[in-house]
């Protein structure tokens, strides 16, 4: 079992950057696949980005390609989401999630979830 804690959210102006962190406890990420999701008011929770720890293969939603980037700490207990050129439409609660199966990017494919961190982008 793994416990997840997100951090790094905040209030920024459009065009600025934030780096979110997802920290694991209980065990490291080496056997997991990690995803970032976001949910804005009145919207469904949706995938933003995902990474397989063992292969470092990544996925990015079309809306964030070229602006967001995933990275891994070599201690295997932290995943980062660098968010650049932020837009007001990026405003949402961002969640880190983890799963053991090696396929699927849907919300219900992920077994473990953090509590979320708020990102607000003003214009």
Helix-strand layout with pairing:
Elements: E1 3-7, E2 10-13, E3 18-25, E4 33-39, E5 46-52, E6 58-60, E7 68-72, E8 78-83, E9 92-99, E10 112-113, E11 117-122
Parallel strand pairs: 2-11
Antiparallel strand pairs: 1-3, 3-8, 4-5, 4-9, 5-6, 7-8, 9-10, 9-11
Average pLDDT reading:
94
Strand content: over 45%
Count of alpha/pi helices = 0
Radius of gyration: 13 Å
Instruction: Let me know the largest β-sheet.
Output: 7 strands, mixed
Show unreliable segments: none
Structural class: mainly beta
What's the helix-strand series? EEEEEEEEEEE
Number of strands: 11
- State the share of residues found in helices, binned by percent: under 10%
Q: Which shape, going by the Cα principal axes?
A: globular
User: N- to C-terminal separation?
Assistant: 40 Å
Structure notes:
The protein is mostly beta strands. It has no helices and eleven strands. The chain has strands spanning 3-7, 10-13, 18-25, 33-39, 46-52, 58-60, 68-72, 78-83, 92-99, 112-113, 117-122. The strands form two sheets. Strands 2, 4, 5, 6, 9, 10 and 11 form a seven-stranded mixed sheet that branches. A four-stranded antiparallel sheet has the order 1-3-8-7, with no helix packed on it. The radius of gyration is 13 Å and the shape is globular. The termini are far apart. The model has no long low-confidence stretch (mean pLDDT 94).
């Amino acid at each position: 079992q793994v416990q997840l804690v997100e951090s790094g959210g905040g209030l920024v102006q459009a065009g600025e950057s934030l780096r979110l962190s997802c920290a694991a406890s209980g065990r490291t990420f080496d056997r997991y696949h990690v995803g970032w999701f976001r949910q804005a008011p009145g919207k469904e929770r949706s995938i933003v980005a995902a990474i397989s720890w063992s292969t470092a293969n990544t996925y990015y939603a079309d809306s964030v390609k070229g602006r967001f980037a995933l990275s891994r700490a070599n201690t295997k207990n932290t995943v980062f989401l660098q968010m650049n050129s932020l837009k007001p439409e990026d405003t949402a609660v961002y969640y880190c999630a983890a799963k053991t199966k090696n396929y699927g990017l849907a919300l219900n494919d992920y077994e473990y979830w953090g509590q979320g961190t708020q990102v607000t982008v003003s214009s």
